[in-house]
C-alpha cells in the first residue's frame, strides 16, 4: 500500500499543475535553426512538443495570376495614392478642402426658423 501511495505522489509531483499552458510558435533561434511548435508552462518552466494531427490537407482554392484583375488593382492603387497626396496637402495647410457651396436659404424660411 505504501509503494502505491509513494508512486502516486511521485507522479503528481512530476506533473505540471498549470491548467492553461501556452502554445509557442515555431521560431528561429540565435543559431539560425528553426525550433518546432511546443507547449510552455510559465509556472514550472517546462516545455513539451505540440503534436497536431491533420486529418485533411488544405484545399487550395485559387492558383495562378488573373490578368483581368490587374487593371482594376492598378487603377485603385493610383486613386489611393492621389487621395493620400491630396490629404497630405490639406494637412500641411497649403490646400483647403473643396466644399460645394451651400444652397441659398429663402429669407421667408430663415425668418420663420428664428422666431
Question: Can you give a write-up of this model?
Answer:
By secondary structure, the protein is an alpha+beta fold. Among the domains are: 33 residues, no CATH class; 29 residues. It is built from three helices and five strands; from the N terminus they run αβββββαα. The chain has a three-stranded antiparallel β-sheet, with no helix packed on it. A two-stranded antiparallel sheet has the order 2-3. Strand 4 and strand 5 form a beta hairpin. The longest helix is centred in the C-terminal third of the chain and has 26 residues. The protein is elongated and about 105 Å long.
Strand content: 5-15%
Q: How many separate helices?
A: 3
Mean pLDDT: 78
Q: What is the CA-CA span between the terminal residues?
A: 98 Å
Helices, strands, pairings?
Elements lengths: L1 H13 L7 E3 L2 E2 L5 E2 L2 E4 L4 E4 L17 H26 L14 H8 L1
Antiparallel strand pairs: 1-4, 2-3, 4-5
Summarize this structure as a short list of keywords or feature phrases.
single chain, 115 residues, alpha+beta, three-stranded antiparallel β-sheet, 3 helices, 41% helix
Summarize the structure.
The chain has helices spanning 2-14, 67-92, 107-114, and strands at 22-24, 27-28, 34-35, 38-41, 46-49.
Amino acid at each position: 500500500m505504501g509503494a502505491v501511495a509513494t508512486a502516486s505522489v511521485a507522479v503528481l509531483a512530476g506533473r505540471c499543475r498549470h491548467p492553461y499552458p501556452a502554445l509557442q510558435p515555431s521560431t528561429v533561434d540565435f543559431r539560425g535553426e528553426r525550433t518546432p511548435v511546443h507547449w510552455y508552462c510559465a509556472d514550472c518552466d517546462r516545455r513539451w512538443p505540440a503534436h497536431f494531427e491533420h486529418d485533411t490537407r488544405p484545399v487550395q482554392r485559387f492558383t495562378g495570376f488573373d490578368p483581368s484583375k490587374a487593371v482594376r488593382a492598378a487603377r485603385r492603387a493610383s486613386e489611393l495614392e492621389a487621395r493620400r497626396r491630396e490629404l497630405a496637402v490639406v494637412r500641411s495647410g497649403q490646400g483647403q478642402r473643396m466644399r460645394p457651396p451651400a444652397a441659398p436659404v429663402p429669407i421667408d424660411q430663415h425668418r420663420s426658423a428664428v422666431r
